[in-house]
Predict the structure.
Amino acid sequence: MGDFIVYGLGRWLHIMAGVMWIGLLYYFNFVQVDALKAAAADQPPTGAGITKHVAPRALFFFRWAAVVTVLAGLMILGGRVDDALFFKDRAYVPIGIGGWLGLIMLFNVWVLIWPNQKKILGIVPATDEEKAKARRVAFLASRTNVMLSMPMLFFMSFSATFHRSLIG
Amino acid sequence: MKNPLDSLWGTVISGLVLTVVLFFLAKTMMGG
């Protein structure tokens, strides 16, 4: 029963939350950034609905899905967390690399993206200059996460068979 | 030099390059 909860339900939760996290990350980068640019060029600008109603909701599920994904991932690793994250066991190297990429991405979400998005969306007060700087930092952190998501997903999906298929 | 993360294609290509680099790093670390 314990194995079912950790490996069955834990992995299920890890993947569902991960789909929501990375899905929203891709929505921001592949859809919303360019949509807001186009909306800002309209006369009069038409992006208010996105920034007022869509972005805050998307950011809520985005940042909490990131937390759930990482916590479920740590639960699946259980007592092997240190083998993976400190590369103590060679078979855990791929999941260790994937795990580190996920942790860096979680850091970016909570330390770089969310605090700066709060300034951009007017949730906390900021001057125009602070907003411009916040926009750049949040944008680059978000794009960094898109870049990191590619090897992260590779190592997550391939880690179970990496050793058998490549090392033998 | 332009930041590759400013464009979507630059971001995707950077992600692919990083994946290849980390793949060979993992393989080396595993003794392959």
